[in-house]
Amino acid sequence: MNSRSYLLLASVTVILGSIIIVLAALLATSGRDNVASSQTGSTSSPQAGATPPPLVQRFPEYGQLVAQGKAIFDKAGCPSCHAAGGVGSDTAPALAGHNRRQVISQLLNPLGAMPPFIPSKLSRQDAELVALYVENLGGAGGAHIHPAYQYEPDPIPHLSMAIVALAYNNQLDALHHIRDIIQLSDPTPELIQELNSIQVDIEASRFVKAQFNMQSLMVMLAPQEARTALTKLYSTLALDAMQNGAISAASYLDNLLTQIGGQNGDADTIREAVNLLDEGQYDQAYQKLELIQH
User: Fold this and answer.
1) How confident is the model over 166-210, as pLDDT tens digits?
2) Distance in angstroms (rounded) separating the CA atoms of residues 75 and 200
3) Whether the model pTM is above 0.90
4) Between helices 155-167 and 207-221, what is the axis angle to 10°?
5) Is CATH 3.30.70.20 what the domain over 59-150 is classified as, yes or no?
6) Domain ranges of the chain
């Protein structure tokens, strides 16, 4: 295992270890409460349907991790675009409604207009903590658009972000992007029909079908822009998969090659990365994909 892998493994282990401690505390507390109740004969219980307090309030260890994430969020300059507390501004959307995996991917391999962070300014462990903080911001499911945010009417970025949302199992966020296109971008009746069909698939958890149809729709709407967006999108997903030790990196790249064919200048680089992955040369494949990113 190379040094990059050791560092990534150590960083993830720190975060996961802390969360496991919190969960262990949760189970222990629950057990003690049950024993106390049986010994005292108490029949008191939370009101049916009541929402339990957030983990950040119930467990100091978890709250400390979230607080660390907020401190890194502030120090890294995130509020300069997303405002204090990630509520959004006139230049960047609000952050509530994004899950941890989405945030980590966006921080380390950003899509859209967001600039990349250099590793010395934001490490993988930092990204894990910031993601934990963002995931605890709460808010209505997937409603990220700040009232003053200058909405982008182009459907291509929203279709891209919906594909990413489904890759990280965030159904609400994917629906948010599809509904924004329908409501705010003045689509044609034909496009509305396609988007409604995609929305039905997402609501039914047919994520793979929805992703495929969104890719096809992107290429139909704007072939060159779509190929550029899909290259960035799937190389980002592949990089994130490699950083997490997932075996799905090659499948993301194979899917990308199917979409862009030989009509993209990055196709040869992507094929080389796929071959390197097949040969187990992960560092070299990673470097090839980074060339596409930058």
Assistant:
1) 999 999 989 988 988 888 777 889 999 999 999 999 999 999 999
2) 41
3) no
4) 160
5) no
6) 59-150, 151-221, 225-294
